[in-house]
Amino acid sequence: MSQSFEEISAQLKKRHRRSARMKWLTMGALILSAAFLVVFISDMVVRGWPAFQQAQIQVDVTYNEQSKEIPLAAVSEEFRPLVSRGFFRILPLRMEDNPALMGTTKTQWVIADSPVDQYLKGNKNELSSSQRNVVDKLVKQGRAELKFNTTFFTTGDSKMPELAGIAAAAIGTMMTMLVTMAVCFPIGVMTAVYLEEFAPDNKLTQIIEININNLAAVPSILFGLLGLAIYISFFGVPRSSPLVGGLTLALMTLPVIIISTRAALRSVPDSIRHAAFGVGCSRWQVVRDHVLPVSLPGILTGSIIGLAQAMGETAPLIIVGMVAFIPEASMTLTDASTVMPAQIFTWASQPEAAFAEKTAGGILVLLAVLIFLNALAVWLRNKFERRW
Amino acid sequence: MSTNIVFLLFCAVLVGLGGVAFVLSRAKASRVRASGTLMHAQPDQYGWFAVLTTAGPALLVSALGAFALLLLGAEIPVLYLLAAGLIIAALGLVLGLKQVRPDFHARRAIESVIRKLLAAAATISILTTLGILISIVGEAISFFQLHSFWDFVTGTTWNPGASFLSAAGRGDEGGSAAQFGSVPLFAGTFMITLIAMLVAIPFGLGAAIYMVEFAPLTVRKAAKPVLEVLAGIPTVVYGVFAALTVAPLVVDIAGLFGLDASYSNALAPGLVMGIMIIPFISSLSDDVINSVPSSLREGALALGITKGEMVRNVVVPAAAPGIISASLLAVSRALGETMIVVMAAGMRPNLTANPLEDMTTVTVSIVAALTGDQEFGSAQTLSAFALGLVLFIVTLTLNIVSVIMIRRFREKYRVNNL
């Protein structure tokens, strides 16, 4: 089978073309994956940005006996439907707290009702055309505008979108993560130290190792079932509390911390251990004074990544009832509470457009926290990691 | 509130006793050593040993007592329990002080206590697995006592909603009896997983091949963090994206072709889940492809084949066990994924092969069964555990098979970093 030179070079060209095509195809796969991230983030920013703004209108508020009885009377009839129901609800309380207000009329900025907010943001809304005219007039006079939404960062959930905020969920997340890390960091590091530095190579050790790898692959929702059956039904830990949520997530995060801590311990060269043994240290002294300090950045990096993972987890928390309506944050471990991803989930299931905006706003806050944590982990790794 | 204060007081006294134990035994040891006697350990180590004998047994006793109090319902007044703890602590202090003898190996004693503590921590992971097994299997068994296993496996109707009627003794009034046929749930799960894998495997594998074989170092360095960010996005966020952005898009596009798609179609969660799994597959395959020995590549190139042919005919076949193992792990993740399907897939069990229709999955049914206002013992709640059991067994099997595959790969090329 002799082939002419032309045939062979044509064939070679074809082969090189195929090789190049493969390169472009695989590159396309990578670019598309990255492009997805861009599409995704920009979609969330576009959807969520309006959540950081809230319409406020300037109206005359009359503080007197009548408006204490019937709060709606505090604002003139023309503007009444434009003001948030929540404002009227707290009005009598405010008068009780501050008697000096009685009998005065003040021109002040108040939070507008959700439809006004949506109208100013150019979305679909339920305002009647006469109400729209009123709002238009107010905007012209500079008495209605979109301001930075401080409510979103200071309050808990509410049935009124203009008053719903992420703060209660953020505090719930903090409490839950406190429990999670308090439980799984020490246990995880101790397990890893035992397996890497102390454990004899026997059947039990192998079982523990296989078991940890399996736990890492168990779907998170099953940890929720465990939390429900063991913590809540058997031990009687209060449902929906940061305690039960934190303990459930701790078991889920445990394998992550064990695996990353083991990797960090393994990267410490044996020469360090040998040197320490050589000057007469016991095994625990070697670990405490030499191996742990050197591998600490790696352990912390792994723990922060585990923490970020636990912070974004929702499924097991739904099962243990942490998707609750929490208008006010509580700082205890046993009261009903919610966490940021669960709050996002709750808002996402609300039909109103205003809540869709809150959903995306909550996502932006959550993503900002997670990206910060991951960046911290990367920074730690780059700054302190030693190559041996 | 008062129990809190008593508890804090207990802790404070215990810490104080520990401190006293440390100071006293260290002083005693220093005195002994100053008198010229050779000792087996340093004064500090005697001090720490005394701390252990003081606090250790006391904590153990109070923990056991609390356990008996809370779980077994034993009638032990908290005050007595804590007082007993403190007495034991005081006894421990005396014992620790007595142990400050030249011939006592304090360091070795501390060492063995620490070793036991670490070993105890290591068994917690086993307890977790046992906990999952016991909780799921136990409830699943009670479920199968109520409903036949055979119906669960082969039935094609999933209608748990009626179970509360029969629980209220109104099973035969209005509406049908509850039915727990899980086939449509597994069909839905399978469909969504299939769609996810059709997205994730080509893209993840392609990205990994490009990064290892073709990309310049700078691209590789830039692309890795991007994929890591993608992997770090919480699933609830993907769920929102699937429900609010992708599902309407799928409906619109299907509309262009004259097809009728549901707003909770299976395609949207499948696609988004696939995107979620891309970084998972790409990072695992990246490791595997990286550890194919370069002698194979060099040998292949020396024979004059092109780079693309080398990848297709040498690298990928060599890495195949690892890639398959990564894909199996990805399948197991897709099967257990909850939030995306809860938010974007339907709630209606639907036995169909059309991804544009709505269908539900195992995880959705688990969530639906456990978030209603059901009593813990009701059939609907228990059905969640039966489904969980199946999920656990399937993911465990996939995981074990994938571990075996990766071990085969590792032994073949003697690489140790996988």
TrEMBL record, chain A:
<protein>
    <recommendedName>
        <fullName>Phosphate transport system permease protein PstA</fullName>
    </recommendedName>
</protein>
<feature type="transmembrane region" description="Helical">
    <location>
        <begin position="243"/>
        <end position="265"/>
    </location>
</feature>
<keyword id="KW-0812">Transmembrane</keyword>
<dbReference type="Pfam" id="PF00528">
    <property type="entry name" value="BPD_transp_1"/>
</dbReference>
<dbReference type="InterPro" id="IPR005672">
    <property type="entry name" value="Phosphate_PstA"/>
</dbReference>
<comment type="similarity">
    <text>Belongs to the binding-protein-dependent transport system permease family. CysTW subfamily.</text>
</comment>
<keyword id="KW-0813">Transport</keyword>
<keyword id="KW-1003">Cell membrane</keyword>
<dbReference type="Pfam" id="PF11812">
    <property type="entry name" value="DUF3333"/>
</dbReference>
<feature type="transmembrane region" description="Helical">
    <location>
        <begin position="360"/>
        <end position="380"/>
    </location>
</feature>
<dbReference type="GO" id="GO:0005315">
    <property type="term" value="F:phosphate transmembrane transporter activity"/>
</dbReference>
<dbReference type="InterPro" id="IPR024573">
    <property type="entry name" value="DUF3333"/>
</dbReference>
<keyword id="KW-0472">Membrane</keyword>
<keyword id="KW-1133">Transmembrane helix</keyword>
<feature type="transmembrane region" description="Helical">
    <location>
        <begin position="215"/>
        <end position="237"/>
    </location>
</feature>
<feature type="transmembrane region" description="Helical">
    <location>
        <begin position="166"/>
        <end position="195"/>
    </location>
</feature>
<dbReference type="InterPro" id="IPR000515">
    <property type="entry name" value="MetI-like"/>
</dbReference>
<feature type="transmembrane region" description="Helical">
    <location>
        <begin position="24"/>
        <end position="42"/>
    </location>
</feature>
<dbReference type="InterPro" id="IPR035906">
    <property type="entry name" value="MetI-like_sf"/>
</dbReference>
<dbReference type="GO" id="GO:0035435">
    <property type="term" value="P:phosphate ion transmembrane transport"/>
</dbReference>
<feature type="domain" description="ABC transmembrane type-1">
    <location>
        <begin position="170"/>
        <end position="376"/>
    </location>
</feature>
<dbReference type="GO" id="GO:0005886">
    <property type="term" value="C:plasma membrane"/>
</dbReference>
UniProtKB/TrEMBL annotation, chain B:
<comment type="function">
    <text>Part of the binding-protein-dependent transport system for phosphate; probably responsible for the translocation of the substrate across the membrane.</text>
</comment>
<keyword id="KW-1003">Cell membrane</keyword>
<dbReference type="Pfam" id="PF00528">
    <property type="entry name" value="BPD_transp_1"/>
</dbReference>
<keyword id="KW-0592">Phosphate transport</keyword>
<feature type="transmembrane region" description="Helical">
    <location>
        <begin position="6"/>
        <end position="25"/>
    </location>
</feature>
<feature type="transmembrane region" description="Helical">
    <location>
        <begin position="78"/>
        <end position="97"/>
    </location>
</feature>
<keyword id="KW-0812">Transmembrane</keyword>
<feature type="transmembrane region" description="Helical">
    <location>
        <begin position="117"/>
        <end position="144"/>
    </location>
</feature>
<keyword id="KW-0997">Cell inner membrane</keyword>
<keyword id="KW-0813">Transport</keyword>
<dbReference type="InterPro" id="IPR011864">
    <property type="entry name" value="Phosphate_PstC"/>
</dbReference>
<feature type="transmembrane region" description="Helical">
    <location>
        <begin position="310"/>
        <end position="331"/>
    </location>
</feature>
<dbReference type="GO" id="GO:0006817">
    <property type="term" value="P:phosphate ion transport"/>
</dbReference>
<feature type="transmembrane region" description="Helical">
    <location>
        <begin position="46"/>
        <end position="72"/>
    </location>
</feature>
<keyword id="KW-1133">Transmembrane helix</keyword>
<dbReference type="InterPro" id="IPR035906">
    <property type="entry name" value="MetI-like_sf"/>
</dbReference>
<keyword id="KW-0472">Membrane</keyword>
<feature type="transmembrane region" description="Helical">
    <location>
        <begin position="190"/>
        <end position="214"/>
    </location>
</feature>
<comment type="similarity">
    <text>Belongs to the binding-protein-dependent transport system permease family. CysTW subfamily.</text>
</comment>
<feature type="transmembrane region" description="Helical">
    <location>
        <begin position="271"/>
        <end position="289"/>
    </location>
</feature>
<dbReference type="GO" id="GO:0005315">
    <property type="term" value="F:phosphate transmembrane transporter activity"/>
</dbReference>
<dbReference type="GO" id="GO:0005886">
    <property type="term" value="C:plasma membrane"/>
</dbReference>
